[in-house]
């Protein structure tokens, strides 16, 4: 597979993943689909906006750059083919890896610590002491009185963010290598499309 086709394929995979992260982070802001709990009752990991900033916007840019790198060369079939766009994609992909790592670390911490919730009349991170063991013990999920169903809500969305950011790291890594090869070797499609 030539570097241009690979870049386009990776870019078209990164764009929906970044949008999934943005939507998941937006849903974390409204536990149980209610805005009542947004003021002062959300965990720090939700407010760090890792899905919106890290897995979302910081990966959306490399996704778009990869799709553009897979297009026709900025200088046509002559001087540099797609080398200019591939070089831009190298830096964008490195930026995307950092964003996905940020999303992964914050989401992983969100899963380990658990949500901020009301238990016995006190708002706190009551599941933090379990060091993530609550994930396997669903009876502890009902101990949080408010917001309603906050534990399954957070577990589902943070797990989605962890999975999406892992895929983003892999895809941005592939594009980083692919774009580096494209900078030095050009895009094989330029030769395929050249008149005989």
TrEMBL record:
Gene Ontology BP, a term: regulation of G1/S transition of mitotic cell cycle
Protein's UniProt name: Transmembrane 4 L six family member 5
Mode of membrane association: Multi-pass membrane protein
Keyword Protease found: no
Pfam families, A to Z: L6_membrane
Family recorded in the similarity comment: Belongs to the L6 tetraspanin family.
Localization, UniProt: Membrane
TM annotation in the entry: 12-30, 42-69, 90-113, 157-181
Glycoprotein keyword on record: no
Keywords, in A-Z order: Membrane, Transmembrane, Transmembrane helix
Gene: TM4SF5
CC per GO annotation: lysosomal membrane; plasma membrane
Molecular function per GO: arginine binding
